[in-house]
């Protein structure tokens, strides 16, 4: 059914909700997973054009991506991880197309109308821009560390 699943991560506790689903789905379908975090600060948006050094935030995001990728690889999932920079919704959609993904799977915060107007919604933008199917799972903040990968 699915061969390559793109999973945007925020480096927040909300990520665990989608990771649980994606691990199960990837196993059932035999799909590979592409993890992506889109850093959207000034340095992240301009670091390649201006030949800048990665910011501390970008370095933390890269380490986070690598730790999640290692967790999925240990669980037997074929996984790649990419740290991108720019507008998150645009980068996610373009990367999914470029990498020939056939599903975008992401968590949402479950904001309501006013919060979406104030903070925006990457998930909403992705689902409107993408021609690739989008799986949305409502996340929830966790106080503890990452959930174990399903067996």
Listing every helix as H and every strand as E from the N terminus to the C terminus, the arrangement reads EHEHHEHEHHE
Named at the architecture level, the CATH assignment is: 3-Layer(aba) Sandwich
CATH class: Alpha Beta
How would you write the strand order of the largest sheet?
A: 3-2-1-4-5
Identify low-pLDDT runs. Answer: 114-119
Assign the structural class, choosing from mainly alpha, mainly beta, alpha/beta, alpha+beta, or little secondary structure: alpha/beta
Could you give a short description of this structure?
This protein is α/β, with parallel strands linked by helices.
What characteristics describe this protein?
151 residues, alpha/beta, Rossmann fold, five-stranded parallel sheet, 6 helices, 43% helix, 21% strand, globular
Structure description:
This protein is of the alpha/beta class and 151 residues long. It has one domain: Rossmann fold (3-Layer(aba) Sandwich), CATH 3.40.50. Strands 3-2-1-4-5 form a 5-stranded parallel beta sheet, with helices on both faces. Strand 1, helix 1 and strand 2 form a beta-alpha-beta unit. The longest helix is centred in the middle third of the chain and has 19 residues. The two termini are 21 Å apart. About 4% of the residues have low confidence.
């Amino acid at each position: 059914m699915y061969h390559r699943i793109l999973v945007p991560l925020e480096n927040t506790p909300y990520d665990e909700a989608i990771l649980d689903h994606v691990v199960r789905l990837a196993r059932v379908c035999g799909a590979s997973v592409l993890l992506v975090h889109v850093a959207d600060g000034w340095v992240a948006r301009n670091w390649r054009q201006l030949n800048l050094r990665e910011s501390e935030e970008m370095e933390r995001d890269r380490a986070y991506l690598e730790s999640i990728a290692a967790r999925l690889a240990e669980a037997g999932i074929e996984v790649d991880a990419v740290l991108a920079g720019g507008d998150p919704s645009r980068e996610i959609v373009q990367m999914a197309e470029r990498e020939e993904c056939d599903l975008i799977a992401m968590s949402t915060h479950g904001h309501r109308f006013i919060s979406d107007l104030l903070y925006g919604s990457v998930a909403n933008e992705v689902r409107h821009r993408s021609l690739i199917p989008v799986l949305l799972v409502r996340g929830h903040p966790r106080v503890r560390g990452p959930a174990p990968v399903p067996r």
